[in-house]
Amino acid sequence: MKYLSAYRALAAALGPRAKENTVSGVFAKDERLRRESLAMLRRARVVGASLCVFDRDGVAGEMQVGFARGADPVLPGTNFRTASVSKMVTGAIAAALAAQGKLDLDMDAGGLLGIGAPKYPNDRITLRMLLSHTSSIRDTSLLERAAEGMTLSDAAKRVAYTGDRPGERFCYSNEGAALVGALLETVTGKDLDELYHDTFHLPGTFFPNRLEKDVLADAVKIVPRRKIAYSGAKMQAAKTEAAGADPQRHWGRAHGSLCLRASDAARIAMAIRTDARFQAMFAPQVPFGSRDPMITEGLSLFLLSDPFAGVCGHQGLAYGAAHGVFFSRETGYGFALLTSGCSLARRYVLTDMNLAAIRLFTEEKGPWKR
Asked: Taking the complete model, does pTM exceed 0.90, yes or no?
């Protein structure tokens, strides 16, 4: 980030200082941990946040601070649109289906979706390439047009490519990840929510307008000025899609639309770490390279190197909100941190906030085991 120092200064000067709303588990028992965690969230100038930490035995504690939308506080039941954390969950669904023999990670995804790199007409774009950002698809404005109703067939004609041979080079692609959802619906005949619930048996939805009584947090930009980037209430009030697979209209969901509570995001991470259905996600695919020298892409999973060797997970950034779900594969310690807006300061990919949380909650002995 070219103007990192200036951005950090602006975030510190203009951002709010959220107050804690609720604490439970280790945050209620360990005053030092509670203070350190609240200080971390305040340094990130969160508008609102829900933080859930876990160990090998399960959820160890939760903390909620600040506002979800308007004057409504963040509470344990608050949902957040998790942005790119959705990719990790979509990847887990694909890995589980592959483990069950219901699809092949190296299947010809391009053939089913009607896409292919123009310079390499004889090269397939596989599901594995879409999941690892090596498909040669690059981002344009198609996802904005998907939100306006563009169908998969129309989008497939307008997909843009980097010019690289499919499978050869990393290029982070939201549009490529979004197409995974269309492929999963096409192959299984089930919609994304049904696939999600079949895989994890937890609350959550890829369709914000399917949330009924649960609160969906806003996303708030704190720099250059505090403003609402999108309204959770308006997203919930939109017309609800009928249940059932519809890849033509659902294709723009899988990359970033999953709505979760922090406690359920934590349970998803615990399942990914321990359940054999998801082990394909941990196979290194391609380094991020200069984008972030510390990250190697697994299958829709960030694999971190020193000083956080063994830590895995995913980050989500969208509209002023930042999210992180990370865990140590070896120790089982980890966290889910979802926000309604905060500082997005970062040097490479991971925000300052997520790096601080990784240091605090994934260390070998565990912060609450001291």
From this structure: yes
